Amino acid sequence: MSRLQNDTFLRALLRQPTDYTPMWLMRQAGRYLPEYCETRKRAGSFLNLCKSPTMACEVTLQPLARYDLDAAILFSDILTVPDAMGLGLYFAEGEGPRFERPLRDEWEIRNLAIPDPHAELQYVMDAVVEIRRALNGSVPLIGFSGSPWTLACYMVEGGSSDDYRKVKAMAYSRPDLLHHILSVTTDSVVAYLNAQIESGAQAVMVFDSWGGVLSEAAYHEFSLPYLKRVVDGLIKERDGERVPNIVFTKGGGLWIESIADIGCDAVGLDWTMDIGRARALVGDKVALQGNLDPNVLFAPPEAIAREAKRVLDSYGPNPGHVFNLGHGISQFTPPEAVSVLVETVHEHSRKIRSGA
């Protein structure tokens, strides 16, 4: 494997000094880019796009051709794991992801099995290998998975939800069943992420997109312990290099100190918490990733620059910051707004680091 030409992102995750704040964007390969929409059209469907290593590689690289980003993230979907468990993932027009066979009956839950990442999910590993080859040591590749709780939400609800009624009803009435789903899913996520690392992912991220819908007590029972089990089970070093991990609970700012205690390298923040205050709470225990409101990118260039600088100034010159949005980039974002953001972050953070 060639050495990285730009390892700023990895060094920031390990809280090592960097000349500037590295950045990437959640959903950076996506519908806001016209070239992505062209590839998606050629693929015929979103699932075809995910399951074609060559097309997944193509869209992973598209934002890097436009912007001076410091990392690539594997193009895939968080629901590949439950799909590999046999729940029958499909995408209904205008409705988002759905499962043909959501988990409702006890026998289905008891029969849940860990998929072999080198069988049902080999297409993801093939994409990782192909992307690493195409990146040719330019920037690191991030692998990812949904968190056990977030995957369980989709698996029980059967798709997206406004109120999480079915999965929360199970949490309160049959916690034993939910814990069984979470336990099997945790082992599946660990196997999946480790297979990505073995295939070439140089950092991994766990997306706990729906952790913030839980009460504090429920979060500490149904999400956080399973996040810790994932982190504990991850490969931490490969080919003599550390493989850092990031944990992101959307809406999890209230519990940042608890999240920082599970042994992860970095904690992702949504936009609802000041990043300087977050750093004061966790100190040097973890790196922080975030946390600009994605809707700032609909504002004029001077407003984008101002808000990006606000995040950078709040974090200060301390090591351990990866700049990102507080959630995925909107499909309606003007591509030129991202150019303003990337240039501002790199330029302003260099000034902060140099004391200018």
Automatic annotation (TrEMBL):
Enzyme Commission number(s) from the entry: 4.1.1.37
Entry annotated with the keyword Transcription: no
Superkingdom, natural source: Bacteria
PROSITE patterns: UROD_1, UROD_2
Pfam families linked: URO-D
Keywords for the protein's UniProt record, in alphabetical order: Cytoplasm, Decarboxylase, Lyase, Porphyrin biosynthesis
Catalyses which reaction(s): uroporphyrinogen III + 4 H(+) = coproporphyrinogen III + 4 CO2
Chain positions of site Transition state stabilizer: 77
UniProt-listed InterPro entries: UROD/MetE-like_sf, Uroporphyrinogen_deCO2ase_HemE, Uroporphyrinogen_deCOase
Subcellular location: Cytoplasm
Role this protein plays: Catalyzes the decarboxylation of four acetate groups of uroporphyrinogen-III to yield coproporphyrinogen-III.
Family as reported in the entry's similarity comment: Belongs to the uroporphyrinogen decarboxylase family.
Oligomer and partners: Homodimer.
Record's protein name: Uroporphyrinogen decarboxylase
